[in-house]
């Protein structure tokens, strides 16, 4: 399992790398201190990108957008000191499939990473408290194809990529998304990701 850690704080990056590799022996953590270095390294080898929002050559959502554009099929989890709800939602809207505050302790960080690798969505507890959630989890009533669509949505995939992965037309994907939204009691992709996180849904990569 290859993970790309993008953070310009060298000591923190080294500490996170040691923590991750100790907990996940099969993980190989590669480091980049700038967005430019990250984009040069990033290819199909990587299953996951851990991305800081404050880099020397990019700040805020610029980095998320660049990574998601360059490697749209690779899951991206943001690790940032800025964990305001608006910041977290903006990252999700751009395709991030998780967000971990830098103030999280090692146990919380590893739990978030485990959830990501198991197909879940780690989000700050404060945001989860605001997330929509149906009174009863009815996602078990989704069809297999609808579950596939939800799994790819959680991974941050665009409608276009979902079409390509599943061999479906754009109209079919939109129809499946509408069904997923109804089950989750939401009206947008971002709300769906938040609801999935609140419900603790996990969809391991197929």
Summarize the structure in words.
The protein has ten helices and seven strands. It is of the alpha/beta class and 206 residues long. The protein has two domains: 2-128, Response regulator (Rossmann fold, 3-Layer(aba) Sandwich); 139-199, Arc Repressor Mutant, subunit A (Orthogonal Bundle). It starts with a strand and ends in a 7-residue tail after the last helix.
CATH secondary-structure class of the largest domain: Alpha Beta
Q: Estimate the global geometry from the Cα principal axes.
A: globular
Total E-strand runs: 7
Helical content stands at 40-55%
Helix-and-strand structural type: alpha/beta
Domain unit count: 2
- Strand order in the largest sheet: 2-1-3-6-7
Portion in strands: 5-15%
For the record, give the distance between the C-alpha atoms at the N and C termini, rounded to a whole number. 15 Å
Treating each run of at least 4 consecutive H or I residues as one helix, how many helices? 10
State the CATH topology of the largest domain: Rossmann fold
- Give start-end ranges of low-pLDDT stretches: none
Second CATH tier, the architecture of the largest domain: 3-Layer(aba) Sandwich
Assembly state of the chains shown = single chain
Gyration radius (Cα, Å) is 16 Å
């Amino acid at each position: 399992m290859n993970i790309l850690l993008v953070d310009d704080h060298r000591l923190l990056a080294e500490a996170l790398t040691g923590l991750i590799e100790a907990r996940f022996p099969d993980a190989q953590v590669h480091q980049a201190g700038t967005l430019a270095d990250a984009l040069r390294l990033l290819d199909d080898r990587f299953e996951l990108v851990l991305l800081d929002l404050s880099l020397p050559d990019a700040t805020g959502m610029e980095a998320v957008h660049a990574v998601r554009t360059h490697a749209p099929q690779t899951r991206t989890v943001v690790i940032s000191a800025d964990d305001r709800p608006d910041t977290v939602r903006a990252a999700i809207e751009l395709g991030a499939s998780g967000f971990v505050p830098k103030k999280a302790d090692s146990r919380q960080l590893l739990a978030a990473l485990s959830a990501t690798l198991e197909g879940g969505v780690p989000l700050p507890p404060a945001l989860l408290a605001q997330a929509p959630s149906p009174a009863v989890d009815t996602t078990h009533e989704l069809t297999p194809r609808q579950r596939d669509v939800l799994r790819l949505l959680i991974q941050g995939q665009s409608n276009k990529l979902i079409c390509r992965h599943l061999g479906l037309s754009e109209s079919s994907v939109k129809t499946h998304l509408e069904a997923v939204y109804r089950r989750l009691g939401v009206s947008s992709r971002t709300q769906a990701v938040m609801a999935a996180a609140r419900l603790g849904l996990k969809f391991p990569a197929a």
